[in-house]
């Protein structure tokens, strides 16, 4: 009985070590594949977004006025940039943006509308831009003061 137990324990130990080795090999293969994929993406190029202006101060306006401002960006990378999502911090601020891929060397736009109705006081509205660019998350902002009616 003792020899059977020892043999069984030895067999289980061998099985566990074999599983760990297979797991290591699988991880090494995955890491190697990931590295190759990253290298392939680097060879294909990647877009980069650059904003000449990240902040717009609209000064002082009266409550109820609508402010519009266009932020332009340049693709200084080597592949097209696609804007995936552009969102604002509140419902009073609405962005419109370039929906076609922006080729390297070209520029795109993000037009921001701010409705000051019900927004008296100091204002700072941030617009978040998500894209496939190297700098995949960027922000721009509009700010100013709204005087009450």
From TrEMBL:
It holds the Pfam family DUF1573. Residues 1-22 form the signal peptide. It comes from the Bacteria. Keywords: Signal. PANTHER family: LIPOPROTEIN-RELATED, SIGNAL PEPTIDE PROTEIN. This is DUF1573 domain-containing protein. It comes from Sphingobacterium hungaricum. The lineage of its organism: Bacteria, Pseudomonadati, Bacteroidota, Sphingobacteriia, Sphingobacteriales.
């Amino acid at each position: 009985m003792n020899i059977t137990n020892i043999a069984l324990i030895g067999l289980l130990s061998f099985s566990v070590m074999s599983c760990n080795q297979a797991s290591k090999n699988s991880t090494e293969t995955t890491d190697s594949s990931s590295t190759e994929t990253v290298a392939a993406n680097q060879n294909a190029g990647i877009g980069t977004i650059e904003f000449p202006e990240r902040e717009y101060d609209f000064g002082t306006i009266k409550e109820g006025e609508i402010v519009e401002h266009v932020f332009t960006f340049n693709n200084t990378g080597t592949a097209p940039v696609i804007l995936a999502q552009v969102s604002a911090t509140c419902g009073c601020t609405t962005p419109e943006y370039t929906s076609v891929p922006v080729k390297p060397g070209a520029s795109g736009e993000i037009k921001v509308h701010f409705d000051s109705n019900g927004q008296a006081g100091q204002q700072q509205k941030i617009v978040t831009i998500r894209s496939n660019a190297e700098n995949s998350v960027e922000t721009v902002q509009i700010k100013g003061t709204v005087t009450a009616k």
